[in-house]
Design brief:
Order of helices and strands: EEEEEEEEEEE
Distance between the termini: 40 Å
Helix content: under 10%
Length: 117
């Protein structure tokens, strides 16, 4: 079955950087749309960034210019490089996979990012 596992979260000061990784197994990684979402208590999960199989990326306005999503198909891994972090970036970050034909989606368990002021 499809499995996603995030890593790389942690505690960082304002202005710092983190790189999240999401390792995928159980599917042909290269054909899928990958994304990063985040959620804070009491709020809906929100889109952070997506990347298609062809490498086209899209970002939430709040992270444009600071975050970069990328993928390594040989490693079945998607990354989220987060720079110039702000306290409002504090959240549980989830990796998402969407199959292009069925639009089935899968989620990882999440990794916590905390930005201190």
């Amino acid at each position: 079955q499809v499995q996603l596992l995030e890593s790389g979260g942690g505690l960082v000061q304002t202005g710092g950087s983190l790189r999240l990784s999401c390792k995928v197994s159980g599917t042909i990684f290269s054909i899928n749309i990958m994304g990063w979402y985040r959620q804070t208590p009491g709020k809906q999960r929100e889109l952070v960034a997506t990347i298609t199989s062809g490498g086209t990326t899209d970002y939430a306005d709040s992270v444009k210019g600071r975050f970069t999503i990328s993928r390594d198909n040989a490693k079945s891994t998607v990354y989220l490089q987060m720079n110039s972090l702000k306290p409002e970036d504090t959240a549980l970050y989830y990796c998402n996979l969407e199959k292009p034909l069925t639009h089935s989606t899968y989620w990882g368990p999440g990794t916590q990012v905390t930005v201190s002021s």
